[in-house]
Amino acid sequence: MCAFFRGLLQNLDGVAGTEPNARGILPELMHTAGFRSVEETLVMPTPSGSIALYRRYRP
User: Fold this and answer.
1) At the top level of its lineage, which domain of life is listed (predicted)?
2) Domain count for the chain
């Protein structure tokens, strides 16, 4: 799935917009944007890679 994501999806959608997700730093980016208590609540595998759902709090 990783090779598919990096090889096809990033070429279609652009590396700049998808690289943070590929590196797994979305929770860190959400925290930097002012969200607190960021937690991954569900990960669903799909043919093109996993989809993660997050819960967060913004004061």
Assistant:
1) Bacteria
2) 1
